[in-house]
Write a structure and sequence with these properties.
Number of strands: 0
Order of helices and strands: HHHHHHH
Radius of gyration: 14 Å
Number of helices: 7
Largest sheet: none
Length: 133
């Protein structure tokens, strides 16, 4: 499935709307991030193996934003990152996750696109994260 088709899908539009709502409620955003991590952990050694480190980095960034530790990111980039994670968490999207072997292809495509599109801001977050340790 082509990335443009996924980006223009009803499911991705819905994920983007949900992401914008999450940004108005830090507690809900934290709770959502925990749910996303729980789903990711179930597929860590399978479908998500190749994007595991990057996905967990995105989740840490969202969590740091939600708890107010890290706010040095553009609103547009944050919406894009959260939208991709919402899309990943949604069980029914362009390719339903129930389709073993295929169900995560669209999720990984969106995540990979967001990681590439947001590389500068993600790298800036990672530098900040390393300085905190």
């Amino acid at each position: 499935m082509k990335l443009k088709k996924i980006q223009n899908s009803r499911a991705y539009f819905s994920a983007k709307q949900k992401a914008q709502r999450f940004l108005n409620d830090d507690e809900e955003l934290q709770s959502f991030t925990d749910k996303a991590m729980a789903k990711a952990l179930k597929h860590k050694d399978g479908a998500l193996k190749d994007v595991w480190g990057s996905l967990t980095g995105l989740l840490r960034l969202i969590k740091a934003y939600a708890i107010g530790e890290y706010r040095d990111i553009s609103w547009q980039t944050l919406v894009m990152i959260i939208s991709a994670v919402v899309y990943f968490v949604m069980p029914i999207d362009a390719i339903p996750d129930i389709l073993l072997g295929w169900g995560f292809l669209d999720d990984i495509s969106i995540l990979t696109w967001v990681m590439a599109s947001s590389k500068t801001e993600i790298d800036k977050y990672r530098e900040w994260e390393e300085e905190q340790q």
